[in-house]
Amino acid sequence: MKMNKSMAVGCVVTLCSLLALVGCGGGGGNGNSTSNATGGNGGGGAPTESYIDYLASNHAAYTNTGTAENPSARFEDTSYSLSWLIATQTAEQAENLQKHIAFMGTAMANGGNPREWDKLFLADAYMKTEHRYETRVSVSGHNVLVEKVATDACAYQLLKAHAMGVSGKFFEGNIKVDFSPQAEAVIASEACTTDRSAIETYIAARLKPVPKGIQKNT
Predict the structure, then answer these.
(1) Could you name the domain of life of the organism this protein comes from (predicted)?
(2) What is the pLDDT of residues 146-181, one digit of tens each?
(3) How many angstroms separate the Cα of 125 from the Cα of each of 15, 24, 95?
(4) Cα gap 47→45, rounded to integer Å
(5) What sign has the CA pseudo-torsion 129, 131, 132, 133?
(6) Of 202, 186, 43, 181, whose CA–CA distance to 108 is shortest?
(7) Which of 6, 31, 104, 150 has the most beta carbons within 10 angstroms of its beta carbon?
(8) Please, which residues have CB within 8 angstroms of residue 65's CB and are 6 or more apart in sequence?
(9) What pTM did the predictor assign?
(10) Under DSSP, is residue 35 helix (H, G, I), strand (E, B) or coil?
(11) Residue 156, Cα to own-chain centre: how many angstroms?
């Protein structure tokens, strides 16, 4: 049964001061934690490995809270923010999502480029190193709240493209997809007029060949 709009808004408003990305971690703990996805996993430092393979294998366990639907973000265009409210079946699944987000955020903040063959992820990394958005993840039992807030329209449109791509593919278990076409469209848009040259330069200096078996998202 779908969660009605007022319930969803209520959950987000309760934690409206959080800025987040979805995240997950290994089992254990008391099921209640909050962490900055770019700097920790609720204690002990940031994860040193990606959990993307785990998430792909367990994708069916992640849904929009209160529904059986694949997770999808809610967008607030006027405030350059987006949020995810995701239900899992176990505390381990929730924690591993949190850990994956923490790993990705930390890697980018430290100059790393996860999925360096994907222009959307490279553009995300550029915005992260420029401190153009913030992310925070809150875990409560089997529920994960992820919120991201950008400082400007260009960064927000890239976050939005990323969120829409992930909700359409990754939560179906398909991680062999290249979101470069979505990045190119955003970078070419009016929102990124001022940043276009810097983003394209960043990407050109780091872009690697697309691995075998990866398909462009069209």
Answers:
(1) Bacteria
(2) 999 999 999 999 999 999 988 867 777 778 889 999
(3) 26, 20, 23
(4) 7
(5) positive
(6) 202
(7) 104
(8) 3, 8, 11, 85, 86, 87, 143
(9) 0.76
(10) strand
(11) 12
